[in-house]
């Protein structure tokens, strides 16, 4: 019972893009191009579209994907098993929200994975994106990468047992191609999964 209540706290509700909105059309476009099997092409900005909007739609989509994947392993990712958010012995992640916690602190993985809500979308159609949108999006994507890195390094055996590795690999490959296409995550940040990234990329050359 305890793990049930814990995971429901960590596991966030899916973010929905309102039907009928332009962002919804973009999401449909993204899903259609994904079906082509060419992920490098699928991540490219569609002609005539706004870059901020494309990044926002995809960021929400990745958030939902990683949320779903992480949700399946929350019972194995506890404050006891993962007292620090890490990606192998060489990479330890500290956390700050920039407002209440300015200096990054050590944090257990379940706490770190609980991404807080960010105002990614302007509430009304036609309202411009906030000036700091790109830096907010980069921060969210960096945190999502850390969740992928944590799952790969600390919980891949659980993923294999659940037979979810193909889903995880496809989701991560899509994510990496996207952040590479628009240069959204610093190369140094990607170091914990560099070998995997190179392997995934070489299959598509």
From TrEMBL:
<keyword id="KW-0862">Zinc</keyword>
<protein>
    <submittedName>
        <fullName>MOB kinase activator 1A</fullName>
    </submittedName>
</protein>
<dbReference type="Pfam" id="PF03637">
    <property type="entry name" value="Mob1_phocein"/>
</dbReference>
<feature type="binding site">
    <location>
        <position position="155"/>
    </location>
    <ligand>
        <name>Zn(2+)</name>
    </ligand>
</feature>
<keyword id="KW-0479">Metal-binding</keyword>
<feature type="binding site">
    <location>
        <position position="150"/>
    </location>
    <ligand>
        <name>Zn(2+)</name>
    </ligand>
</feature>
<keyword id="KW-0808">Transferase</keyword>
<feature type="binding site">
    <location>
        <position position="82"/>
    </location>
    <ligand>
        <name>Zn(2+)</name>
    </ligand>
</feature>
<dbReference type="GO" id="GO:0016301">
    <property type="term" value="F:kinase activity"/>
</dbReference>
<dbReference type="InterPro" id="IPR036703">
    <property type="entry name" value="MOB_kinase_act_sf"/>
</dbReference>
<keyword id="KW-0418">Kinase</keyword>
<dbReference type="InterPro" id="IPR005301">
    <property type="entry name" value="MOB_kinase_act_fam"/>
</dbReference>
<feature type="binding site">
    <location>
        <position position="77"/>
    </location>
    <ligand>
        <name>Zn(2+)</name>
    </ligand>
</feature>
């Amino acid at each position: 019972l305890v793990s049930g209540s814990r995971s429901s706290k960590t596991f966030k509700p899916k973010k929905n893009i309102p039907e009928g909105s332009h962002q919804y059309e973009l999401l449909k476009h993204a899903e259609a191009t994904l079906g082509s099997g060419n992920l490098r092409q699928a991540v490219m900005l569609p002609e005539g579209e706004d870059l901020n909007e494309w990044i926002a739609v995809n960021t929400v989509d990745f958030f939902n994907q990683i949320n779903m994947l992480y949700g399946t392993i929350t019972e194995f990712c506890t404050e006891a098993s993962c007292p620090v958010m890490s990606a192998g012995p060489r990479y330890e992640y500290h956390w700050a929200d920039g407002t209440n916690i300015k200096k990054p602190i050590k944090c257990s993985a379940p706490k770190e994975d609980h991404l807080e809500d960010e105002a990614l979308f302007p509430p009304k159609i036609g309202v411009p994106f906030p000036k700091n949108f790109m830096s907010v999006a980069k921060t969210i994507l960096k945190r999502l990468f850390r969740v992928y890195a944590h799952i790969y390094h600390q919980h891949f055996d659980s993923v294999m047992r659940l037979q979810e590795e193909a889903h995880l690999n496809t989701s991560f490959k899509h994510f990496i191609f996207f952040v590479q296409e628009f240069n959204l995550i610093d190369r140094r940040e990607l170091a914990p999964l560099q070998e995997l990234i190179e392997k995934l990329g070489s299959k598509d050359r």
